[in-house]
Amino acid sequence: MKGTQEATLDSAFLVMASNMSALKARSMKTTAGAFDMEDFIEKLISFMGGNKATGEAAEEGVEMDDTAPLKWDKIGRKALAKSRRVPVMDFM
Fold it and tell me: Which range of residues forms the domain containing residue 80?
């Protein structure tokens, strides 16, 4: 095999570069600008016509009775305004 030393050095450099970029990404993240996934999901469910737990029920973790189905066509129309491309699953 030729170039094993170069390959070893290249892989060590890639590991070091990825670790440095991960540290930079973590340091850039602030609490004011961080994406709150729970808040986004709550807003999405309420937009789609679902009930969300509010007040004391949300703090206690009480489940709401969600018998009505969510309106997926409503969020679909909003998504179509941004892109008409069908999402596909592919390798990377």
Answer: 35-92
pTM for the structure as a whole: 0.40
Tokens 């004391």, located at residue:
56
Tokens of 45: 């469910």
Q: Tokens in use for 22? A: 């991960």
DSSP three-state, residue 31 = coil
Judge contact between 48 and 70, C-beta under 8 A: yes
Burial profile 33-69: b = 16 or more Cβ within 10 angstroms, e = fewer: eeeeeeeeebeeeeebeeeeeeeeeeeeeeeeeeeee
| Cα 40 to Cα 75: distance, rounded to the nearest angstrom | 13
Task: Quote the tokens at residue 2.
Answer: 């030729």
| Whether residues 40 and 65 fall in one domain | yes
Q: Which residue has the higher pLDDT, 80 or 58?
A: 80
